[in-house]
Amino acid sequence: MAETPRFFNEMDGSGEKPRAPYARYCDWFADEPPERLRRKAREAETFFRRTGITFNVYGAADADERLIPFDVVPRIISGKEWARLTKGIEQRVRAINAFLHDIYHRQEILRAGRIPVDLIQNNDAFLPKMIGVVPPAKVYTHIVGVDLVRTSENEFFVLEDNARTPSGVSYMLENRETMLHMFPELFTKIRVRPVSDYPKSLRRSLAACAPAACTGRPVVAVLTPGIHNSAYYEHAFLADQMGAELVEGHDLRVVDGRIAMRTTLGYTPIDVLYRRVDDDYLDPLNFRPDSMLGVPGILDVYRAGGITIANAPGTGIADDKAIYSYMPDIVQFYTGEKPILKNVPTWRCSEPSSLSYVLEHLHELVVKEVHGSGGYGMLVGPAASKKEIEAFRAKLQARPSAYIAQPTLALSTVPILTRAGLAPRHVDLRPFVLVSPDGIEITPGGLTRVALKKGSLVVNSSQGGGTKDTWVLEE
């Protein structure tokens, strides 16, 4: 009797034959000469390099600009699977927006004792200056990225929520464009739902959240920290695709109670600013006075209803990994429903009993910084050396409230193309969600990140991971 694989393979399932979503792809793949596939993979890399699809790596000694490796084997999700995921994602995003409105207004969830008061009040991501402020259209998180992992045929978990400035959507779009260019015949054989409408949907969704001060067609702009930011390519790409202006802080100023951008004809008011600058750097008059990236006075204009900022200031608290551990309670509190999508079990190291357990089991757990992102500042216990574990033990003991811990999940795998043929690698998925008064729109697909190193569970591009095109099949 064959041993059951430890990790669920999304293409092969039990290993006897391809799973239904992959059946047509596998028939096509079986007839493809391996050398053609390898040549196409090289062409894709050349295309990405020529197009300039790069990201910057902070602190890298060898180079601060890199290509994100792209694998030509798609990740395929059935229409039925996607329908279930979208219900869970929509439920979660609605709860996050309700939670953000509540903690900046009546704080009913704190009064009910469902979340500790100090977890909000002592949180660096909580902005007291947003208390009592109602964003235009009552939307806090206009763009959300929900990171999902899969452990079995029917088991998905939310790994984390990205409600501040989620990135990666440009790679989702470019990955699809590359696959359409490289393998057009595949899309005639397999009915894949398109993702190309995302920029148009993004513009429409942002415009629907224009402030009361807006007259006429809303003017939308993208605020970038500049060319040295790790996601600058994406900022420029989205501005171009939306037909919006790409601006930096020095291009903007307060004019007659509005935020206006510099043009050849003078200063023009902006209605909606899609900001890719963190809260701390958004307004030197209200936050960090040394910031050169933001706009002096923009928070005051925002509070007065003169501009929409997407996502709203203060949404970063929903990214907090300690808050994440309470998401099942948050979903139930605001929707009255049980969560459709599960959380990963989480130990809050701020709690003495949890800290004691984590310290005893560091070699088994994944430990993350509460405010960390991008794969930085984390420990993957099973893959760490004794020296790394002991160094992290000291960090935990010094600042326990800054960390959470989770079990090492058996992440599903999807094959990548290697010189020896197909080989399984671990993946996650970041679907992208747009929120407006018109409803919640979830792009059919998202960004699949893949750990290219055999056995690795770390999929972040900053840590050596790559990406795949994600196909959602038509029913």
TrEMBL record:
<feature type="domain" description="Circularly permuted ATP-grasp type 2">
    <location>
        <begin position="74"/>
        <end position="451"/>
    </location>
</feature>
<protein>
    <recommendedName>
        <fullName>Circularly permuted ATP-grasp type 2 domain-containing protein</fullName>
    </recommendedName>
</protein>
<dbReference type="Pfam" id="PF14403">
    <property type="entry name" value="CP_ATPgrasp_2"/>
</dbReference>
<dbReference type="InterPro" id="IPR025841">
    <property type="entry name" value="CP_ATPgrasp_2"/>
</dbReference>
<dbReference type="InterPro" id="IPR016450">
    <property type="entry name" value="UCP005522"/>
</dbReference>
<dbReference type="InterPro" id="IPR051680">
    <property type="entry name" value="ATP-dep_Glu-Cys_Ligase-2"/>
</dbReference>
